[in-house]
Design goal:
single chain; about 260 residues; alpha/beta; Rossmann fold; ProC C-terminal domain-like fold; 8-stranded mixed beta sheet; 11 helices; binds NADP nicotinamide-adenine-dinucleotide phosphate
Length: about 260
C-alpha cells in the first residue's frame, strides 16, 4: 500500500498512528506542536513531516485528524501540494461531501465517522468515498480503518443515523454504566468494583449478540426467568420510558447532524 499520512496527532490521530505502526504500514505524521511527534522517531515505519505541505507531497492517503474548525486551514495548507492521486480522508463530524468538495474541489476525498473505542482498536467506523476514488483505493481505505476496529462502506444519507448509533452512542453507554454503578454503590458495592463488573457485562452482552447473531429480544428473553429478578427491572425500565428515551436520543443526534 502507498504511504499513509496523518495530520493532527491528538487523541484520534495518535490512536490511528499507533494502530498503523503495529500494522507495519509506511506512515508519515505531522502536528502543529512538534513535541508530541518525538516519541514516534524510534519506529522504522514512521516518518516525521516538517510541515503539513511536506506530508501532502509524500502520502497518498491523508487522514485529517484535527478539530473540524481547523479543517479549512489544513485544506489551504495542503491543497497545492497534493498529487493527482492523493485521497483526503476526513474524520470530522459535519464535514459532508458538499463541504469537502468546497475545500478540496475536484479531488479524491472520503467522508468518514469513527468512535472513541478506536483508542483500543475496537472502533466502529463508516466511510463514504466520492466517485473519483477507485475500487482499489476504497479497499485500501477499508484496510486502513480495519487496523483500529470494524468498518463499513455506507452511502452519505446513512451518516446521520450512523453518527447517532456509533459516534455518539459511547456517551450514553458510559452514562448507563455510571447510573448502574451509582445504584450498585447505594446497595453496598465498592464503586471501583462495580465499574469493572458492569463494563465486563456490557462487553460480554455485545460479544454474545455479535457471535450468536440472535435477535436482541431473544437474548433478553433468555435472561428473564418467570417471576425472576430481571423481569422486575425490565418492568421498571418500561415504566420510565427506557426505549422511548433511547429512540429520542438517537433521533435528536440524527436531526442535529442533518442541520450541521
Ligand atoms: N465522535 C468521536 O468520538 C470522534 C471519533 C473520531 C474522530 N473524531 C474527530 O476527530 C478529530 C480530532 O479529534 P481529537 O479528539 O483527536 O482532537 P485533539 O485531541 O484536539 O487533536 C487534534 C490535533 O490536531 C492538531 N492540530 C491542530 N491544528 C493543526 C494544524 N494546523 N496542523 C497540524 N496539526 C494540527 C493538534 O495539535 P496541538 O498539539 O498543537 O494542539 C492536536 O494534536 C475531530 O475532527 C473529531 O471530530 C471524533
Amino acid at each position: 500500500m502507498d504511504k499513509i499520512g496523518i495530520i493532527g496527532i491528538g487523541n484520534i490521530g495518535a490512536a490511528i498512528t499507533e494502530s498503523l505502526i503495529d500494522s507495519d504500514k509506511e506512515i508519515i505524521i505531522s502536528n502543529r506542536s512538534k513535541g508530541v511527534l518525538q516519541k514516534y522517531r524510534k519506529y522504522k515505519n514512521v516518518e516525521i513531516a516538517e510541515s503539513n505541505a511536506k506530508l501532502a507531497q509524500e502520502a497518498k492517503y491523508i487522514i485529517v485528524c484535527v478539530k473540524p474548525i481547523n479543517y479549512p486551514l489544513i485544506a489551504s495548507e495542503i491543497y497545492d501540494y497534493l498529487n493527482e492521486d492523493s485521497v483526503i480522508i476526513s474524520i470530522a463530524a459535519g464535514y459532508t461531501m458538499n463541504k469537502l468538495e468546497e475545500i478540496y474541489p475536484n479531488r479524491k476525498y472520503v467522508m468518514s465517522m469513527s468512535n472513541t473505542p478506536a483508542l483500543v482498536k475496537e472502533a466502529m467506523s463508516a466511510i463514504c468515498p466520492n466517485d473519483k476514488v477507485s475500487k482499489e483505493e476504497t479497499d485500501d481505505i477499508l484496510e486502513i480503518f480495519s487496523y483500529f476496529g470494524k468498518v463499513a462502506k455506507l452511502p452519505e444519507d446513512n451518516f446521520a443515523a450512523f453518527t447517532a448509533i456509533c459516534g455518539s452512542l459511547p456517551t450514553y453507554i458510559y452514562m448507563f454504566i455510571e447510573a448502574a454503578s451509582d445504584a450498585a454503590v447505594k446497595n453496598g458495592m465498592k464503586r471501583k468494583d462495580s465499574y469493572e463488573y458492569i463494563a465486563q457485562t456490557v462487553k460480554g452482552s455485545a460479544e454474545l449478540l455479535l457471535k450468536t447473531k440472535d435477535h436482541p429480544a431473544k437474548l433478553k428473553d433468555d435472561v428473564t426467568s418467570p417471576a425472576g429478578t430481571s423481569i422486575e427491572g425490565l418492568k421498571s425500565l418500561e415504566n420510565h420510558g427506557f426505549r422511548a428515551a433511547i429512540m429520542d436520543a438517537i433521533d435528536a443526534v440524527s436531526d442535529k447532524y442533518r442541520k450541521m
